[in-house]
Every structure is written in structure tokens, then in C-alpha cells.
Prior knowledge:
A: 313 residues, 12 helices, 0% strand, B: 350 residues, eight-stranded mixed sheet, four-stranded antiparallel sheet
Amino acid sequence: MLKPLIRRLIEMTVVMALVVTIVFVIVRIAPGDPAAMMLGPDATPQDVADLRVRLGLDQSLAVQYLRYVGGLLSGDLGQSIFLGQPVGAALLARAEPTFFLTLFSLLIACTIALPVGILSAYWRGSLFDQATTTLAMFAASVPSFWLGLVLMQVFAVKLGWFDPSGYGGPGAGLGTRLHHLVLPAVALGIVSSALIARFTRASMLDVLGDDFVRTARAKGMSEWQVVLGHAFKNALIPILTVIGLTAALLVSGAIVTETVFGLPGVGSLIVSAVLRRDYPVIQGALLVIAGLYVIINFVIDMLYLAVDPRVRY
Amino acid sequence: MTPAAAPSASSQPDVLPEGILLRVDGLKTHFGTGNRTAKAVDGVTFSLPRGRTVAVVGESGSGKSVTSLSIMGLIAPPGRIAGGRILHRDREGRVRDLARLTNADFRHIRGPEIAMIFQEPMTSLNPLMTVGEQIGEMIALHERISRGDLRRRVVELLKKVEIPAAESRADDYPHQMSGGMRQRAMIAMALACTPQLLIADEPTTALDVTIQAQILELMRRLQADMGMSMLFITHNLGVVAEIAHEVVVMYAGRVVEQAPAETLFGRPSHPYTRALLASTPDPDRDIAADGSRRPLAAIPGFVPSITNLPPGCAFAPRCPLAAQACRESPPELTTVAPGHVARCIRMEAA
Lengths: 313, 350
């Protein structure tokens, strides 16, 4: 159990080193002088030159790269140009809404998708199966920000059950903050449930035809013991992959939804950083999101190990 | 999975002669509906005496596996039991028609009364559970038992099927075992609740020949020791000769001959049975003293499609004895000798 863990950790380090390099290069090859872009057309050449020195852009690429990596290794993601605070601190201050939003969306997606997928596979061809297939097609084709706007219109504006926007303001209690996450989480969760439900159905259909399912029935197990105890556990292996991918997608999907719902999360931080060309923040956020992808993948791999005794890394 | 009762059969009382554990009576298992119905099993009748091994022999598509799955109540839609009865006597001596049992009632039959093992021991075991867990699950389903006792029972069962180092093997996953070991584990699982009847559907087909012989020997010994009945599905007449007391020969969804094993091998009546025996390799018969070899007698033609059976005897198109009458109406099962029946009107012509 320890050896594969260490091997995966080494692989993750290599991936992250590549990501760091790519992010560094992308920002450097973006057209134009970052300093001039940041300051806008009215800046004097002297202002631009000063900023170049402040950002270290007057150094050679190699020196810039080494400084950048050195900073990362000591936990320094750089300094935001507009926020007047370190990028790491800015991201951390915005992490909570994004984290909870992703987590709730994933929970909602799985709560809808797993039972629907299992039942539509079990009752394949039934009215239930056809209805959920149609609904899944619909959910998968709807953009989450549009669904968010519809939910906002109905449940916040018309019914007044939720606030249409924000995170409860400064000093709001945990309950208030979570209450503000309900609508965006439902919007994101419903959209991502479609993919998980379709995958669960396909995976369950595969497994329900397997010989060991017949063996389980031949033992005298009830249908639900057979379906949940034997079939679902085997179907879960490919489903885990999709859940992991969905979790990663949700992190980036949150960017748009956060903007729609005015949530002060990492997503809206990135959007405003892009609008203001706050390169250090964009760079730092890209790294953090890439890091999350890598960590989620690692967790999925470890779950494989836990679920399937045949898997060896 | 809840079969409809056949109107003609339900009027008869559910009685079984003493000494008969199970009687399949005019069983029809069909797949699909309308004129595309596949009559996989079409009026199969045979009896399974207590403590005996009955082999069901036939080519692929003869309906032998569907018959065994019908007895277990494991026919899934679009399949259904379209007629006939499956009379079964349980431990308390109660006789019931399994063809009309609800799924909830059937769960108490599967395991403690009738257990089943399958052809592919690799795919028939759950890859995510240890064999010990899978055997224990069978016991825990049907009995109240403590954890410690359960573990002891599992290890005992593994010893009973001659798995070496049973104590540690119980914690193996199926992929850590060889094919022969897996089939032994399957047998241990099937026998966990000491069933009255063990159905074995081609249990040795997927195994090496040397392992086949070991598994057959084990099954024969366990059958005799436990005094249970066994329904052994196979296409291999060599296996039949090893293990069966009685033989049922199936062709295109019907029984064409049933006889005690020695009668069937010594004096086969149905032309299909004779052709099957002639097409089985036999070194004593096929290799002459001078080393010359006699070619094997293959049966010409193919098994007819069960969606499109000929109007008369299903074997007539391939039968060397077929007459005009054979092609017109299907023959009935007739008694050749006590305990020996065959479905042929031209038996005397041979």
C-alpha cells in the first residue's frame, strides 16, 4: 500500500513541475508587454519601465523562472498587482465558497445520479428509463449559468426563499453562508448529474449481465441485495472515474456560476483578475486549479486500490 | 421472473411419488412473443430421484441450460415459463410447483434446497469479494450464525472441497486462485447450506482435462457422501459416463431419450443418441490393431433454429432413419423398457 503511494506522489510532483513551467511560459508568450498591458494606453514609458523592474521582467527568462520556482517552493505565489496582497492569501480568502460550492454540487449530483442510473439500468427500456434518459439529455445540454438564472428567478425573486446574490455579507454565520450556496449548488449539481447518471446506467447494465450477478441470485439473495451488494460495487469502479472528472470540472464550472450568483469565490477572483490583467493572480489560480486536478486524480487512484483487489500500481 | 401458470397444468394436483425429489413436467420456457418466439424448452419432462445424479446431455442450443435456469427460477425477461410444472419436494416434505412460486418464496429454495454451480468459475465469482466472504454470505443469508462460527464453517467447507491451506485460502480473491481452485470454491459455496439438489451447469467445461477429472471425482464423492441429488448439465458424454446414474438426452428443446446410464450407453434407442455416441472419440474403437484410424462419425447438418422448428420430429432433417411420417407430426415419448423412454417412431428400423 505504501509503495504505490510513493510512486504516485513522485508522478504528481513531475506533473506539477510541468504545469508550473507551462504556466510560466504561457504568461511570457502572451502577446505584448505584460507591464504595458497592465498599465493601459495612458502610461508613460517610465511607468512601464518601473513596473517591469518591480515585476522582475527586466531580468533574463532563466533568472525569472528560477525566482518564480524558488518563490513557489517557499510557498510564495507572488504578489497581486491590484489587490495589494499576496496571491496565496487572496486565493485562500476566496477558497471557502468555492470549496463548499464544489462539494455541495458534487453531493447533489451523486445523490440524483447514482439512484437514477442504477434504477434505469435495472428497469432498462421502461418508462422510467426513457424519461430519465430524456431528462439527462436536457440537463446535459443546459448551461449551468442559464439554469442558475432560472432558479434565481423562481426561488429567489418570485418565491423569495433565497437571496439572489452574495454570500451573506461580512460576518455572516455559517448557516447564512451555506444558505446562499443552495441555488448555485443545485444549478451546478443538476447539470453534472446527467453525465454521472448516464455513466452509472451504462456501467450497471454491463455488470447486471455478469455471471456473478446470476450466482448472487442463485444464492437466494433479494433483488436489492444483488443489485446494491454485488452489482453496484463492481459498477462503481468506472463510475468513480467519472465522479472524479466531474469534481475537477466543477471547480472550473464554479467560475461562471460564482459570477452569476455574486459569490466571492476563487472563480470570481479569476474573472476579475483576467479583466484587470492581474497576471500573478491568474498564474497562481491556474496553478491551484491544476493542483486540485492532480490531487483529485490521486484520490481516485487510491480509491481504486481500496475498492478493487485486482488493481496494483 | 414470476412465471405464468399453464392453464392445463394448474388443474392437476401437485403430487410427487415417494423417492422423487423433483419432477419437470411438460416444461415450456419461451423467449419473446408472437411468431418470433424462441421455444428454447418445449415440453420437457423428466424426474430426478432422491440421491441420484441425472445428466442432461445435448448440443449447444438444445435447451439444457435453460431447463436448469428454469428450475432455479432464474429466467429473466424476455424469457418466461410458458407452461408445465416443476414439482419439488422440500425438506419438510411439502410439494410445490416452482413454476408458480413467487420470487420471495423462491429465495428460500435457492441455497438451502437447490444450489447451482456454473461453467465459468472465474466470472461466476464476485471479483471484489474474497472466496471466504462469498461462501459465508450464502450461510448468513439463510441461517442465524455468529461471526466466529461462520468463519469455522467456511474453512470447514473449503477443506471439504479439498482446498489446501483452507484457513489462508479463505482470504484469497478469485483472481488469486487457479481455475480448478475457483470451481472448488464455487462448489463449497453451493454446498454451504447442504442443499437437497445441486445443479451443475457444465462445471468442468472451462477446465483443463486433468483438473476436470479431479473436479468430477470430487463431485461424485460429495454427492454420495451427502446423499444429495445432482442435475448435471453437459455436452460431454465422457463426463456423463463418469458421473451419471441416469441420462436425459435433449434435442432442440425436447427430451428425446431418458434411460439409466448403462442402458443408454449399452442400448441407445433414439437415432440422435446413437449418432452422439458414434461421434464421441473412443480410442478402443477408433484405432485398429494395425494403427489405422477410423474417421469419426460426425452428425450431418445443424441443430435447427428454435425459432423455426420443422413441423415433425426436429431431428428428422439429420436422421438416417427418417421416413415421411417423421416429417409430418412430432413423435411422442414412448416407453422402450421400464425406466427407458425415447421419442422416435423408427427405433425398430435400426
